[in-house]
Design brief:
The complex is a heterodimer of chains A (172) and B (460). Chain A is built from six helices and five strands. In chain A, strand 4 and strand 5 form a beta hairpin. In chain A, helix 2 runs antiparallel to helix 4. Chain B has a domain of 320 residues. Chain B is mostly helical and 460 residues long. The chains are: A alpha/beta (172), B mainly alpha (460). Chains A and B meet through helix 1, helix 2, helix 4 and strand 2 of A and helix 5, helix 6, helix 10 and helix 19 of B.
Chain lengths: 172, 460
């Protein structure tokens, strides 16, 4: 009798309720199956690696320069030794993402110097390589770009970043 | 020592926000304790960053943070005195059933994991180059954004024109730490996540009459890779997730105001609306959409025209910031060309590929899982069941930003506009993701949506 009752007035409601719960259970279950493993994998992949006040920029420089340690502090120290109003010219290779990112990170650390990023792959900007060096620049920075052989060696940060103070070029 | 200083910074942010909240809402308003904390965080970051920016025109050095700290303490004391005994109800915890408590425990665990992930990951590229950079340079310049930075074309890639809510919250942490620190400043971001999920539960509970739908959808938010683990997520110092929390609060409290004459909700809507353009440039678009929703509510509910004043502070922030950038001759972004009819006509062919990219983003499992499928089903159910003002507001709040963002790519100045879309669309969709969780929570409940509040007079 009770079954009949359920089958009488109540069953459309109950069927709808079961359909509602089933729909959401399936959808949420599928959602969790797709993203759950990935989220847990990502969450357990790393551990806290405290590296001080330059936590993020040091990690980036370490990765992008091929192993520089304390790269941020070294670069800041270097830029601080130069007259603050003078330009820092940063040479990058536009088509190489790591090179341009390295250039931008150098610009971030070069404050309060004004900066100028030059893409050497840009054919029209080729002459700037020499002109920038001979004017008001305090230093030239080569980010995954080879220093011209007639320039003196500068300070290397990792394997792919080199800072050449223009005073050195003038002396030479 | 650093940890204590960090606690001091966070405490003052909460204090300023708490004071603002208590001054904003009518005295007799009862808000959930966790909800008050979440709103205090949002309002605190907004108020303190605005104060630091505005007072920075007149003061610098140690005087600037000292003045702001005194002001936030005074604000908190005034707010505390104004509320009397009623503003810290703990009864909501006692009312929760076992299932709700279990879900709340899972949610708390997820927030803890988000904190952990924030410390594990470095600041993302934009987190460092667009946001933290402003805090760092301002700190080096006695708390004021240097004019030379705003004008420096060489640093144009760091978007000097972006507003200061996030960087100046980080700057506030630096003031307390006594130095810049890329590690500790990351604490700010999981707090936005915590505030976001708490507000999602609070607003959903108010709209559905039950806690579990909000708790379930808040738990699900963690499993959206774009929110918790992907590049640009809530843990890497980007402004997109904080902006999405402000947008959730703005639209959420507006929805509460639709079903109730309670003045508090409309005022909270107004406060969060004000801060939208202060968080990120795209916040101006969200402000426009949310303001439109607010105007719609005012017209349909025949509220007093005085309520339109709620739009004024946000407009002042947008105009004030643009004026400031103009006066400082700030370098502006070169990502978009000026909006002209000629450009529109010559680039209109982009619309098809842009829509195609948008659709493929919705279906990208590695960043969104099945989140948008759930939202689509929930939206369909919701709009079939409810054809009222609240549904209209939700539809505008959901479709408005998507449409405007998609339309904006027509004016992209990137040589390859497709890569521009590909690079940024996932982060732009984040802005509406928590709001979509609200639609989802409404659809989880079979019965009609109800609003369970109405104690205070019908004013704005």
């Amino acid at each position: 009798m009770s079954i009949l009752n359920i089958g009488g007035r109540q069953w459309p409601r109950r069927v709808l309720a079961i359909a509602h719960v089933s729909l959401w259970a399936i959808l949420i279950g599928a959602f969790l199956c797709v993203s759950g493993p990935k989220t847990f994998r990502e969450a357990s992949k790393h551990t806290i690696h405290f590296v001080g006040p330059f936590h993020s920029s040091d990690s980036f420089l370490h990765f992008a320069t091929g192993g520089a340690m304390n790269g941020s502090a070294r670069l800041i120290r270097l830029f601080d030794s130069l007259p603050s109003q003078d330009l820092i010219v940063i040479f990058v290779r536009g088509e190489d993402t790591r090179s341009s990112s390295l250039g931008m990170m150098t610009a971030y650390l070069a404050w309060p110097h004004p900066v100028r990023l030059i893409d050497i792959a840009h054919s029209t900007r080729g002459p700037e390589l020499t002109s920038a060096g001979s004017h008001s620049a305090a230093a030239l920075v080569f980010c995954r770009v080879n220093r011209p052989p007639w320039f003196p060696a500068g300070e290397r940060v990792g394997e792919t970043l080199e800072v050449v103070p223009t005073a050195k070029i003038a002396k030479r | 020592m650093n940890f204590l200083a960090l606690l001091g910074a966070l405490a003052t942010l909460f204090a300023a926000g708490f004071g603002t909240l208590r001054l904003l809402v009518p005295k007799q308003t009862r808000l959930n304790f966790a909800e008050q904390l979440a709103l205090s965080w949002l309002l605190g970051t907004g108020v303190i960053s605005l104060w630091v920016w505005l007072l920075g025109f007149f003061f610098g050095g140690w005087v600037l943070p000292a003045l702001v700290a005194i002001a936030s303490t005074v604000l908190a004391v005034v707010g505390w005195q104004r509320m009397g005994r009623i503003a810290l109800p703990v009864h909501s915890l006692r009312r929760m059933g076992r299932t709700d408590l279990l879900l709340a425990a899972v949610l708390a665990l997820e927030v803890a994991v988000i904190f952990y992930l924030s410390y594990v990951h470095t600041l993302g590229w934009d987190g460092l180059q667009n946001w933290e950079i402003k805090a760092r340079y301002a700190y080096a310049n006695a708390g004021v954004i240097p004019g030379d930075y705003l004008r420096d074309a060489g640093r144009g890639f760091t978007h000097p024109e972006y507003p200061l809510a996030i960087p100046f919250t980080e700057l506030w942490v630096y003031f307390w730490l006594g130095d810049t620190n890329q590690f500790w400043t990351k604490t700010v971001f999981p707090l936005f996540y915590g505030a976001g999920v708490v507000l999602l539960v609070a607003i959903s509970t108010r709209l559905t009459g039950k806690s579990w739908p909000g708790l379930i959808t808040s738990i699900l938010l963690f499993f959206v890779p774009q929110i918790s683990t992907e590049g640009g997520s809530a843990v890497v110092g980007y402004a997109d997730f904080p902006l999405s929390v402000f947008y959730l609060a703005t639209i959420g409290y507006l929805l509460c105001a639709v079903g109730s004459d309670h003045a508090a909700y409309f005022r909270i809507y107004g406060a969060c609306l004000t801060l939208l353009p202060w968080v990120k440039s795209e916040g101006a678009i969200l402000w426009l959409v949310a303001a439109l929703c607010g105007v719609l509510l005012i017209l349909m509910k025949k509220k007093s025209a005085r309520c339109l004043l709620a739009l004024a502070p946000g407009l002042a922030v947008i105009v004030g910031w643009r004026f400031y950038l103009g006066a400082m001759h700030a370098v502006s972004s070169s990502d978009f060309t000026p909006v002209t009819l000629t450009t529109l006509l010559s680039n209109i062919h982009r619309l098809g590929p842009i829509m195609s990219m948008l659709f493929s983003e919705f279906t990208r499992l590695e960043t969104w899982s099945l989140f948008w499928l759930l939202v689509a089903v929930a939206g369909t159910l919701h709009f079939c069941r409810h054809r009222d003002l609240r549904s209209v507001v939700l539809a505008i709040a959901f479709l408005g930003p998507i449409s405007i963002y998609s339309f904006a790519y027509i004016f992209s100045s990137w040589p390859d506009y497709i890569s521009h879309v590909g690079l940024s669309i996932s982060r732009l969709l984040m802005h509406i993701a928590p709001l979509c969780c609200l639609i989802l929570s409404g659809a989880l409940v079979r019965r009609s949506i109800v609003v369970r509040i109405a104690q205070s007079p019908a004013t704005c």
